[in-house]
Amino acid sequence: MTSLQDTVAVVTGGGRGIGREIALHQARFGARVAVLARTAREIEETAALIATEGGTAIARAVDLVDRAAVEETLKSVVAELGPIDTLVNNHGSFRAFGPIWECDPELWWDDIEINLRGTFHTCRVVAPAMLARGRGRIVNLVGGGTGTSFPNGSGYASSKAGIMRFTECLNDTTKEGGVLAFAVDPGLVRTAMTELQLYSEAGKTHLPAIQQLFDDGINVPPTRAASLIADIAAGRFDPLAGRMLCGVDDRDVLERDMAGIVERDGRALRVTGMDMVKL
């Protein structure tokens, strides 16, 4: 049975949707949880929900693009809850839809900065402290465009592909020290982000496939990713560190296939079908 008793988890983007479910699941399995996001009201609601279930949680409003603010916030989390065992980077932005020449350049870059730079900032603070203790797990959420093209969603896709490669690099840097990094794709979940894609004029114009997917019945419950991440935090999938796990995965099947995935170097960003120039 999954147990996170006597651990500390930090969940970014934890004020609603997938992030709220991740925070709730961490707490239900025994972790003390710090919930981070920019909107104080939402993360305070998440912390209150955890408290009503008998768990321990604190809310910290922070802009993850602000490096100094991230450093101070995580320092305060450690002071109040203790050393961080699990970091979940769930925060995300996807507001720039359309061909790049039609996208607002500032919105496009905001998506990159929030998603990728925000993940860099939290990992940069947490990983050294985990290495000093010889243990820790980091989970970075990826998504659409991570391994394939995402027409009219280039900023989001580029950031998520970047997070995937960043996760691989981070894991290869820290795994010998007992700190493991994972990527998780939650699947298509109905969230505030997808609502913007569905109902904004730009979304309806440039991303009609999202509506079609929902019409076809594809709507992954956020609990799928949250349960998976709880298992990752508990160590169930340690052999798959540096690789991508998915909310839609059957976790029992995934566990049975771990050795095969590693052997065939699956669930990773790889260039295939061409001869690579050796430098």
TrEMBL record:
Superkingdom field: Bacteria
PANTHER family noted in UniProt: SHORT-CHAIN DEHYDROGENASES/REDUCTASES FAMILY MEMBER
Family under the similarity heading: Belongs to the short-chain dehydrogenases/reductases (SDR) family.
Name by which UniProt lists this protein: NAD(P)-dependent dehydrogenase (Short-subunit alcohol dehydrogenase family)
Organism, as annotated: Kaistia dalseonensis
